[in-house]
Design brief:
mainly beta; about 20% strand
Amino acid sequence: MSERAAPFYCPYCGDEDLRPCEEGSAPGQGAAWECRSCSRAFRLKFLGLLAPGSTGRPPSASDGGTP
């Protein structure tokens, strides 16, 4: 796996004209990207893997858990 995974589209406008922002990238803080379409900058960071069978959200009353 590469050190930096590239996003496919901007999370704000959905456009694909993204460029890495070397200025805002610091070790351990995630990769910074610029969207040339909407002029926004955002950062991506890998947080970790979920436990097997985990949905990534806490259980709710409808799932049989307590709210």
